[in-house]
């Protein structure tokens, strides 16, 4: 498992049709696989994490990966800052996705004691 499989999972997750139960099921499986890929990279060490970090440059992947890295890894400051910059950018606006990102940030900050 690695970068290529993560990209495939992003394609599945990005193409979800919430009106189709099978599509939602495939998306959920893809997201589970993405978390597993990140977890495996964390266990493998910095070289594997650095390979995944290249996907932060891809908008469709970065919105998933930023969350998963923050949740799963003890990141170097610059990488953590980059992940949060991506999430904060997604949180701008008034749409449902932005509101969800704002809620995620608020919850994370309250858990970590950060403002």
Fold blueprint:
Layout (H helix, E strand, L loop, with lengths): L2 H12 L6 H24 L1 H8 L5 H14 L4 H14 L5 H17 L3
Shape, please?
Answer: globular
Low-confidence stretches: none
What share of the residues lie within helices? over 70%
What is the SS-derived class? Answer: mainly alpha
Largest sheet data: none
As a percent range, the share of strand residues is under 5%
C-alpha termini separation: 36 Å
Q: How many beta-strand elements?
A: 0
Average residue-wise pLDDT: 91
Contiguous helical run count: 6
Spatial extent as radius of gyration: 14 Å
The number of distinct structural domains comes to 1
Q: What is the chain-wise order of helices and strands?
A: HHHHHH
Task: Summarize this entry quickly.
The chain has 115 residues and is mostly helical.
Structural summary, described in words:
The protein has one domain (3-112). It starts with a helix and ends with a helix. It has helices at residues 3-14, 21-44, 46-53, 59-72, 77-90, 96-112. Helix 2 (21-44) crosses helix 3, helix 2 crosses helix 4 and helix 4 (59-72) packs across helix 5. It has 115 residues and is mostly helical. The protein is globular.
Structure characteristics:
single chain, 115 residues, mainly alpha, 77% helix, globular
């Amino acid at each position: 498992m690695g970068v290529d499989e993560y990209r495939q999972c992003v394609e599945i997750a990005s193409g979800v049709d919430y009106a189709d139960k099978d599509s939602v099921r495939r998306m959920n499986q893809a997201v589970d696989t993405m978390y597993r890929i990140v977890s495996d990279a964390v266990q493998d060490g910095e070289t594997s994490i650095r390979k995944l970090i290249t996907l932060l440059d891809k908008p469709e992947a970065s919105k998933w990966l930023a969350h998963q890295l923050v949740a799963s890894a003890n990141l170097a400051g610059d990488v953590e800052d980059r992940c949060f910059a991506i999430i904060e950018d997604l949180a701008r606006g008034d749409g449902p996705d932005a509101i969800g990102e704002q809620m995620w940030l608020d919850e994370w900050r309250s858990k970590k004691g950060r403002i």
